[in-house]
Automatic annotation (TrEMBL):
Family indicated by similarity: Belongs to the cyclic nucleotide phosphodiesterase class-III family.
PANTHER family according to UniProt: CYCLIC NUCLEOTIDE PHOSPHODIESTERASE CBUA0032-RELATED, PHOSPHOHYDROLASE
Record-annotated membrane-spanning stretches: none
Cross-referenced Pfam families: Metallophos
InterPro entries: Calcineurin-like_PHP, CNP_phosphodiesterase-III, Metallo-depent_PP-like
Gene3D superfamilies (alphabetical): 3.60.21.10
Protein name: Metallophosphoesterase
Superkingdom of the organism of origin: Bacteria
Domain annotation Calcineurin-like phosphoesterase: ranges: 3-194
Biological source species: Dactylosporangium maewongense
Key words, A-Z: Hydrolase, Iron, Metal-binding
Amino acid sequence: MTTIAQISDLHFGRHVPAMAQAVLAELRAAAPALVAVCGDLTQTASDAEFRAVRAFLDELPAPAVVVPGNHDLPGWRVWTRFARPWRSWRRHLGTDPDGLVTWSGDGVTAVGVTTARRWGPHHDWSRGRLDARQIAAVAAAFDGAPGGDLRVLVAHHPFLLTAAGRARGLVGRSGPALRHLRGRADLLLGGHVHLAYSGLVDGLVVAQSGTAFSDRLKGEPNSFNLIEATGDRLTVTARRWSGDRFESGRHNAYIRDNHRWRTIA
Ligand SMILES: [Fe+2]
Ligand SMILES: [Fe+2]
């Protein structure tokens, strides 16, 4: 069995320090092969927040695939947002949001992709999207993975919404992305809506985790996901904050046949 931990929307600057420590303790106990960090690591993309992020990531007990969210761009510092949007990210976290982040091991190939954008052709710049170059690069990365690997895409904006999060919008170009990922990828991880759920889209499993330890709640408690994969099966379990600790909530189980998934009753 391989365990992947999924945490999202840390929002350092609006984080609850004791809960952040509780998440670290949970992750140490779960001993995942990989931690997927699905964006919005900061609240305002300040240097102080990025320093706190760096310290937190250094405490993780496993390798991490980390992608940015819309909050990791300089919000209203307009010149910086357009001219050097990822300067602080690069300085503190050392990765390039314009490229992919990849990790493989323990039967997992994970690819992280940036969906946050400096601007959008609509009033809501918190929305994200993929472009054709990114979709092709992700598809190529999965094509190069061992056939039996669990192929995991780590992003910030969602490929699946529930009624509670409908107003936030799907990741832009989700349709073309899904056409390329269908039968190629297995699991799409995201955040952004601060709600925990999982389900199927086009034969792919989508898992969304809530905000792990910030006070920016959207109607449900803080949460993170533990994903356990064994052969062609996987389960997604939300661990939710109950007031003084994390407890297991919903548990969804899936089985695949040639990278196409269905639920197990
Ligand atoms: Fe967020
Ligand atoms: Fe977000």
